[in-house]
Specification:
By secondary structure, the protein is mainly alpha-helical. About 75% of the residues lie in helices and about 0% in strands. Strand 1 (about 40) and strand 2 form a beta hairpin. Helix 6 (about 145-170) runs antiparallel to helix 9 (about 200-215). The chain starts with a helix and ends in a 6-residue tail after the last helix.
């Protein structure tokens, strides 16, 4: 029976994967290639594209908002990656211990991840502006307020999701190694940094990869919370590209060039981060 099943899979696998493969080509590869071509064109629609070479890429750097958004996004991603992973790891470690109501608390922490980004942005805009109103300020008063407002929102949303990944990793830790560390007289701190964290590196790799890429790609929450105000000062890269493409007449080519540069930056950083954390993984 197993042999027959194996033969059937080898015979028919291509027909089952073909629809998904075709959809991937049409929905991702083709638009991606067209997008790269359009980044070298002056256009308003795909049909009237006029090739202009590297002119759009030159105009990226003459637009002062792009460099500011890039630096703003890098700072935002670093802060949120550190906070989310440390807090999620700590909560996961706490919930893997024997405690009443652990399952309920896990569900509560995970719930924010189920809410859409636009809704979260509006809710936190009301909450944070209500608090800042006591000092006569608002999220759009300065980029600093917008920055920390975004940090609070994203951390609140993503900590629960990363917590679930860390809990799964902790529950799969080999108990014999943990018991051996206790027998050898290792302190809780030594056990954490010499045993648990090295064994948790696969989960740390996944969570750090997700938080880094999510930080760079953030759009919905930025749009709803501050919309880049004041004066594009709290504008992340994704929103900057959107505003360039749709908010400035004749800048579609520049916006597309920004999108290509954005893709390259995210891809390089994600690959470097993934390689760095993967190199620290150990075999249990």
């Amino acid at each position: 029976m197993i042999t027959m099943t194996g033969k059937s899979i080898r015979r028919w696998w291509a027909w089952f994967t073909l629809p998904t493969f075709v959809a991937f080509i049409i929905g991702f590869i083709v638009p991606f290639v067209i997008g790269i071509y359009l980044s070298f064109c002056d256009f308003t629609t795909v049909t009237d594209a006029r090739f202009v070479g590297f002119e759009n890429y030159k105009n990226i750097w003459s637009d002062g908002t792009f460099l500011h958004s890039l630096l703003f996004t890098v700072a935002f991603t670093i802060v949120t990656t550190v906070i989310i992973n440390i807090v999620a790891f700590a909560i996961a470690y706490m919930f893997t211990k024997v405690m009443k109501g652990a399952t309920l608390f896990r569900s509560i922490f995970f719930m924010p991840n189920l809410i859409g980004g636009i809704i979260l942005g509006w809710v936190w805009q009301i909450l944070l502006n209500g608090v800042l109103a006591h000092w006569g300020k608002s999220l759009t008063y300065s980029a600093t307020y917008g920055f920390w407002g975004l940090v609070i929102l994203v951390c609140w949303q993503q900590i629960g999701y990363m917590m679930v990944i860390y809990i799964a990793g902790m529950q799969s830790l080999p108990t014999d190694i943990l018991e051996a560390s206790q027998v050898d007289g290792a302190s809780p701190t030594q056990t954490m940094f010499r045993v648990i964290i090295p064994l948790m590196m696969p989960s740390i790799t996944v969570c750090s990869f997700l938080t880094v890429t999510n930080g760079f790609k953030l759009f919905d929450q930025n749009l709803a919370l501050t919309n880049g105000n004041p004066g594009h000062q709290s504008e992340l890269l994704a929103l900057n590209i959107y505003n360039t493409f749709y908010g400035r007449v004749g800048y579609q080519g520049v916006g597309q060039a920004k999108a290509v540069v954005f893709f390259i930056i995210v891809a390089v950083i994600a690959l470097l981060q993934n390689r760095l954390t993967t190199s620290k993984e150990v075999q249990a």
